Amino acid sequence: MRITRISLTNFRSFKDTQSIDVAPVTLLFGPNSVGKSSVLMALAYVQQILKKGHCDPQKLDALGAKSVGGFRSLVNAQDLKKIIRIRLDYSSGKTPFVHYGMNVEEIARHIQNVNYVLMKDFGGSLETGAVEFEIAWSERFKRAYVKDYRVWVNGIYVGCVHSSEDMKNTLVQELNTLHPLLVPCNNEDWLDSQYGEADEREPLEAGEYHTEFEQVLNQLNPNPPSTAAVSDKEASGEDFVNRIAPIALVCRSGAVPLLGIPVRTNLVGQDFDELDEHFNFLVAQEVLSQAFVLPLDKLLEYLNKSIQIGPLRVVPDDGYIPNPHPEQKDWVDGSAGWDLLYKDPRADESTKKLIKNTSDWFASTDKLDAGYEIINQSIAEMLNADNFEESTGLFNKRHVFFRELRSNITLSANQLGTGISQVLPILAAANYDELTFISIEQPELHIHPRFQVELADLFLQSKQKHSFLIETHSEHIILRLLKRIRQTTDRELPQNYPPIQEEDVSIVYLEPGENGVVTKRIRVDEDGEFIDRWPQGFFVERREELL
Prior knowledge:
single chain, alpha+beta, six-stranded mixed β-sheet
């Protein structure tokens, strides 16, 4: 799974809806305090809602318990009458979006004479999707809640879960039953049996079902079809007719279904009194679970493996005590990168690989070429003690050192320039296979321009494993990205370097506007040239200083 677009409305400095296209490597440029960090914060906010149900958080766990001041500080202009809207588009990639809940077909093979609606493999057919949350403030109950949660699959609207202000009435309010994945496998045969052959069939009238699934849902639903809500075509962005009566749904935080389990609804058929009815209930439960729960389960799994590295990163001293189990929040100051490198490489093959690859980026002449390699040793190993494997206590405590390649001198992190310690967490994150989405604020701080251009290569060479969202002011990073695109087109890439296409890079400029932040993607062609003009020019300050 990869997030491919982030759209924000009424979130912090974002007022009118603005979208950021997310590529494997995405750069956010713009003046200070324009709202670049708000993009990163929006993802942490969604994670907090899905994981803990916090719509009014004082702190965001993923950002190192960073204080955000609750919903009032997150909503644009601190106007509690406004509704925050966050939409995340994604591609499923290699993520298995498979059956959710009971496999009805497998059960039916062991039972004779059972009839139920045959549906397509919704989860297995999901290629792209989007979820959108509308978070509102209840003045009556003095709390924030998810008012609406909408889903799109393969570019087509699926439906909406709605919550009342008191959060006691949560329901599937809209369902686009003509979505290709919600139309039963044999629906044409069913239509023929109900209304005659297609070439002789009269146009369906109000109250007549377009699919067997529509009929099944309304038969199982204690709410009459006449209570179906009028389609909100503006919010969905599509012209569709909602023919399904509201289906009560157990949720939390408002309109967010319970995650990790099949949906819990008020549909009848949960008992075995009528076998056909029960199997239709199981089908409806599975389809609704795949439509509304599965995308959130996968999104939360993705966000739990995402990290944000802040602009100010820790420099370990000689008494640094690593966390043996670094958490997501420990990446904000970079300490998680050090914690992983402090682990014993003899006990964990993945740690050994991480240390080797991170060290290689420091030492190799075709990478940072910093003149150092990373050494993970215990004091006993450093002293060449004969029995170091049996040593205990301080002698067995592991340390991360840097060996200078020219002099063979071993130094600790606080004996080196700040740039080395600032770049290390970025290198460790890029080489850590457990991560999915890596956001970095100002990776160029305290780093020499030569390191900055090599960081661009780090991002590009790691794009198969991770997505990178980089908030930066670095001209050097962007110039290296453009160079690699041009070299790919001209077939002049360095040996064993992966080809880079223009779609692998998204460059987004943010600037203040009358109605909040305005985003503009600066497109790049296959020759590594900008197609679009930069607002106010490209790093115009440099040109002005040279004149």
